[in-house]
Amino acid sequence: MKQDNQSENNPLREKAEKVLSELVHNSSKRLPADNLKLIYELEVHQIELDIQNHELLNSREDAVKARDEYLELYDFAPTAYITLSANCLIKRLNIKATKMLDKNRSDLVNQNFNMYVLPEQRIAFVEYFDRLLMNAGKSSGEFIIRSGSQSDKYVLIEGIRAGNNEDCLLSIIDITDLKETEQLIKQKNIELANLNASKDKFFSIIAHDLRSPMGGFINLTQGMAENIQHLKMGDLKAYTKTIFHSATNLYKLLENLLEWSQLQRGLIIFNPKPCKLSSVISESLIAEGESAKVKDIELTINIPDDIEIVADFQMINTVLRNLITNAIKFSPRGEKVEIGYVSMLQSHCFYVKDNGIGMSEDILERLFQINQVVKRPGTEKELSTGLGLLVCKEFIDMHKGKIWADSVEGKGSTFYFTLPEVNEIEN
């Protein structure tokens, strides 16, 4: 009965008995019942062992195949995997990890992983590794690793203690690009915040500069309206002269403000073409000639007639007009303003020079900065906003040139700007 139950519950024995029954059926020998029974049991056990051995061999082949597949997946995984001993020694690692550390696998095994962490972060990594050994859960940390000839890498390490409680399993992901992008975004946000703050300050300055001449208009016209019957011709002439100067300054301010605002909104089309510089200067002198006559200032030109530039005619005209206006504004009566040319390697260099009041080092450093607008009255109290120089810089930057100033306080100033000699601005 016991044998019957064993047979019912043991598939291996059932297979053996089936094989044996076929053998007995085909045998011509006749043995006593006891001997036959004993032989039967022995042969059943032998067949059980054979079948079991065959199944074990199949299981071993499956296990080897599964192990090979695992090793292949481990070795060629897109993520770096490293197993560290309790002493932080590298026990095994995959191909991705060897590439990340830029060394052969044989050179890395039994090496202390801590030596590949940036020196400044090694203490932090040791603390992180100690937490891995003490806790059963997964732990993450960001570090910088240094390897071979490659540049430093920002990595995200996720680790967990192995099942034997002696090793730690690490997955390492290169997040260098992500970190660089984060740094770039952070820098751009800082620049944007600074730019917004600069623009806010700039617009407050412009609002003040617009308010001043408009307030002057109101006061002057109110005075004239209230006292017109008592004013003499000389008084009227003084009033109208003051109104004229205020209107001129306000017009120039609005003109520069319009150009600058169009630049910021991308509404000005940059259209560089070959043109004669003499044509640009003639246009600028016509616009500023009247201001020079009023102050008895002589405008001289020291530029060869054959100089040809590749530039946006209107932009360079605006630059020259602003620089000549400033030179006249800050020059005493009877002085000279020179517009000249200096030959430079691979570029044209032009200048506007005056013998006026000049500038201090502090003022020179604040030129061309939106949050450091320089405002000074001219030699005859002409108003100034500094906006014209900002427009000049924007236009010269668009031409891939440079603009700067040299000055000595009390001895005059020279403003320079360059334009590429070849047609680089179209590239």
What report would you give on this structure?
With 427 residues, the chain is an alpha+beta fold. The chain folds into three domains: 74 residues; 95 residues, PAS domain (Beta-Lactamase, 2-Layer Sandwich), CATH 3.30.450; 242 residues, Heat Shock Protein 90 (2-Layer Sandwich), CATH 3.30.565.10. The strands form three sheets. It has a five-stranded antiparallel β-sheet, with helices on both faces.
Structure, briefly:
This protein is an alpha+beta fold and 427 residues long.
Number of helices: 12
Report the principal-axis shape.
rod-shaped
Specify the structural class. Answer: alpha+beta
Strand arrangement within the widest β-sheet reads: 2-1-5-4-3
The CATH superfamily of the largest domain is identified as Histidine kinase-like ATPase, C-terminal domain
Classified by CATH, the class of the largest domain is: Alpha Beta
**Average predicted confidence as pLDDT:** 79
Return Rg in Å: 45 Å
Uncertain parts: 1-7
What is the fold's blueprint, element by element?
Elements (H helix, E strand, L loop, with lengths): L1 H8 L1 H16 L6 H43 L4 E5 L5 E4 L1 H7 L3 H4 L13 H13 L4 E7 L7 E9 L6 E7 L1 H52 L5 H32 L8 E4 H18 L3 E5 L5 E4 L1 H17 L6 E9 L2 E8 L6 H6 L20 H12 L4 E6 L3 E9 L7
Parallel strand pairs: 7-9
Antiparallel strand pairs: 1-2, 1-5, 3-4, 4-5, 6-8, 9-10, 10-12, 11-12
Helix pairs in contact: 1-2, 2-3, 7-8, 8-12, 9-10, 10-12
